[in-house]
Design brief:
Elements (H helix, E strand, L loop, with lengths): L1 H58 L2 H7 L6 H15 L3 E5 L5 E4 L10 H13 L4 E7 L2 E11 L5 E10 L2 H11 L2 E5 L8 E2 L3 H13 L6 E7 L2 E10 L7 E8 H33 L4 H15 L14 H26 L5 H10 L4 E15 L1 H7 L2 H21 L3 E6 L2 E6 L8 H25 L6 E17 L4 E6 L1 H12 L9 E4 H6 L7 E7 L8 E6 L2
């Protein structure tokens, strides 16, 4: 048994260490990918800044200004001047447009005028926004580029045209990022006619392309992708284009390098575990001959406990592990006796908080006066709905509703007092005192309203009718304690404040109130944290109470 326990412990330890190593490697890889993402963004921004500065240099170029000063600027001369700048500014494509976006000259004679539409898009956007420059990503002649447009002042300060510069996002650009970060970079377009760039092999790039094609517009996310013989932690992010579907930028880092040291540690742990198991086996075999009689006593005592006799004690005077085990058996007997007592108490109260109080104070009739916040929730129109549905379907629907509502109440620290058909009565501040009981009750009411909206969306998808809820919340001093008989107890609260909460719930059916949640001024006065959004509804006289109650609608 001990050997089995040791074997399981060592195995679990090995699995946990392996899992921790993998988690650490994934976390480290994701952190590196985030760094690579920032480096990519910085590289693009630097390129845009560089292109904008280059356009400024060309704006003051004497040759260009001279040609533009002519009545009919010579297009070939301008194109030649622009082409001379391509190598100097690092922009293979430079175009010059007039203020209306008409092409005046282009450094790339192979690029047709209609392919320069993204420049015109930027010019129009910059003009409308009254910007001195604009930039973005787009395709030129089927290749991805970063585009920048900058105004041409001739004469200053009047804008007489626009410079458009483009830098290709190609394999060289991707390789530059990889050389800086050690991360594989791919630019993937879901449009087959558009070129993409990558530092991956063709085979691996096909895998990435198929993943992007399956989810072309997925939001930024990270996943593990098997590429060849290695797994890669891959970050997928969208890069918006000018008037086109976005391109997916994929940053990847292999797990092999991250896990190398961890695998070495796992091997050492495996060797140590096997050695420890071998030593433990030899020790266990040496001790086996001296423990048969105590083991028989332990087995006999086990049968006594199994029969339900928790009063018997095992007298085994040994200063070793078996003696400790005998003491553990005796402690177990005491624990089982206490468990039966707990089970008897839990049969009378289902709430864990109530059970804890009963274990502390005992299951006796009586109570104490204390301030609590009471929440009543009831379904509107449930009677009409019950007439339309068969009993099994009605019960299933009601159980789904009660499960969602109870979950929100308990999540905010409330205790379900009772279910009254389709109604719920919950307590905040009893049996366990809470300084912020009113805050919790109002937060629970709003959460129940949101949870019902989600549940109604599910019902709509299933073709079921929606449900409507009314919630009343009131804070008051009440008597809280065990109510009932000596044979059957129920922890609850009684008092005028309980009646008020139930009546407030009924008032939510009043059409002119336009609300699902009504609370009393007493509850709002008891709020300790951030006040909730409310709308005063005036004072009303509720049934069963002589004095008026100031009420408020609770808004989202």
């Amino acid at each position: 048994m001990l050997l089995s326990l040791l074997f399981v412990t060592l195995g679990v330890t090995y699995v946990l260490v392996s899992h921790a190593n993998l988690s650490n490697a994934l976390a480290h890889s994701e952190a590196n990918l985030k760094i690579g993402e920032r480096i990519y963004d910085d590289a693009v921004r630097q390129q845009i800044t560089s292109l904008a500065k280059s356009a400024g240099v060309m704006t003051s170029d004497y040759a260009i200004r001279t040609v533009l000063g002519e009545d009919k600027p010579d297009t070939k001369t301008l194109s030649s001047a622009l082409k001379s700048f391509t190598g100097r500014v690092g922009a293979p494509v430079i175009a010059l447009f007039d203020t209306e976006g008409a092409l005046l000259a282009n450094s790339d004679s192979d690029m047709a005028n209609e392919n320069l539409g993204p420049f015109r898009y930027l010019i129009e956007r910059a003009t409308k926004a009254d910007q001195l420059e604009d930039s973005g990503f787009s395709y030129l002649n089927g290749k991805l580029h970063v585009l920048v447009v900058v105004p041409l002042y001739a004469p200053y300060p009047n804008i007489s045209g626009w410079f458009g510069l483009a830098f290709p996002i190609d394999r060289a650009f991707a390789q530059k990022i990889k050389d800086t970060t050690g991360i594989e970079v791919s630019f993937v377009s879901v449009q087959g006619a558009k070129a993409s760039a990558t530092t991956l092999s063709d085979e691996n790039f096909k895998v990435i392309s198929s993943l992007v094609a399956a989810q072309p517009n997925a939001v930024e996310h990270t996943k593990i992708v098997q590429l060849g013989d290695d797994r890669y932690v891959s970050l997928f992010k969208l890069q918006d284009l000018l008037g086109e579907d976005p391109v997916t930028v994929v940053l990847e880092r292999p797990l092999t390098a991250e896990l190398a040291a961890a695998h070495a540690l796992e091997r050492r742990l495996l060797y140590i575990s096997l050695a420890a198991l071998l030593v433990a086996t030899l020790i266990a075999l040496g001790l086996a001959r001296s423990i048969s009689e105590p083991v028989q006593q332990l087995a006999s005592h086990t049968r006594v406990i199994a029969s339900g006799d928790y009063t018997a004690r095992l007298d085994l005077d040994r200063a070793d592990e078996l003696g400790d085990l005998a003491e553990s058996f005796n402690a177990m007997s005491i624990g089982l006796a206490e468990r039966d007592q707990v089970r008897d108490l839990l049969d009378k109260n289902v709430s864990p908080e109530v059970a804890a109080q009963l274990m502390r104070d005992g299951a006796t009739l009586g109570g104490e006066e204390r301030e609590v916040t009471i929440l009543f929730a009831d379904l509107r129109g449930f009677t009409t709905l019950s007439e339309k549905l068969p009993p099994p379907a009605l019960l299933a629907l009601l159980n789904r509703y009660l499960d969602r509502m109870s979950g929100e109440i308990e999540r905010h620290g409330g205790v379900i007092d009772k279910f009254i058909g389709d109604a719920i009565m919950a307590l905040f501040g009893a049996p366990v005192a809470q300084n912020d009981a009113a805050d919790r009750a109002l937060a629970a009411a709003l959460a129940m309203e949101r949870a019902l909206a989600d549940l109604n969306a599910e019902f709509a998808a299933e073709g079921r009718p929606p449900l409507a809820i009314g919630v009343g919340v009131n804070t008051a001093r009440v008597v809280a304690g065990n109510i009932g008989s000596h044979r059957r107890l129920n922890y609850s609260v009684i008092g005028d404040g309980v009646n008020v909460a139930a009546r407030l719930q009924s008032l939510t059916r009043t059409p002119e109130y336009h609300t699902n949640i009504i609370t009393s001024a007493a509850t709002l006065a008891a709020v300790r944290g951030t006040p909730v959004n409310t709308r005063p509804l005036g004072s009303v006289t509720v049934k069963g109470r002589a004095g008026a109650v100031e009420i408020h609608a609770v808004e989202k």
